[in-house]
Amino acid sequence: MAGALDEVGGTLRVTERIHANLPEMSVAMAKLAEVLLEDPTAPLELSITELAQRAGTSPATVTRFCRQLGYPGYVQFRVGVATDSGRVDADDEAWRSEMGRTLDPRDPPEEVLHTLLNAHVRSLRATSSVLDLQLCTLVAQRIAQARHLDIYGTGGSAAMASEMQSRLYRIGVNAHAWGDVHAGLASASIQDERTTAVGISHSGSTKETFEMLARAKAADAFTVAITSRSASPLAQLADVCLLASVPEQYLHPADLSAKHSQLFVLDLLYLLVAQHDYGATVERIAASADAVSGHRRAG
Fold first, then answer.
1. Choosing a second label site near 79 at 20 to 30 A (CA), which of 94, 101, 222, 246?
2. Are 20 and 2 in contact (CB under 8 A)?
3. Where is the HTH rpiR-type domain (predicted)?
4. Domain with CATH 1.10.10.10 in the chain
């Protein structure tokens, strides 16, 4: 068992747990094991998504791998790696791997609030400073005129895609959001030069989002990447890249300051699309508001 004790009463090291469980691992998990046995401290530098990409597998497989070794999740697994390496205190590493290295577990609530607000404000300001408004206007025009709009995103970015789809659909854009890669690939495969496809990924390296946008591009759709990294695979693939910048890793890479930057870009695009045919936009918003008015309590 992964959590077994060794002969002298101490818990097994991470590499020992990997060797002990290797015969029972699936092919995907064995790939992870190979990466970690070659570079045991890799988890200290890589997020769960980055480690999965290095091993050619998925974050879900990494989580299952951790559990097979006896760790509840990736955070606890990183603590085990850090403890084995002797690089940091285990309790502090648990906090830092989950919350980042700017916040301290002993900070008072006032300091946490200040740090959080600063992170979000800086992200929005950084995004506004790097956005190319000409490109934003072009993208908005292509969305407004598209026969069909696909929006791709997984994890937290899937929520952003769903929110954008809902808002655009209400003003008459034939928009569809895809978080499931199989459904997204099927939709992407039937695009053409009259359609637009948007891929949302903070890192720009999410395999599923890249695959969906690549399939749409191969079908001649106009493609757009919304990411924080202009040199990322997703950005390099797309016809147009709009940057949702996060200037510093204040918190965990998946924290909401990154999502707020994405939402800021999407909100700008939505308003520019709404301006494209303002009269029709107002009529559709009024009609949809009237349709649900009976479901709102008076007063």
1. 246
2. yes
3. 12-88
4. 14-99
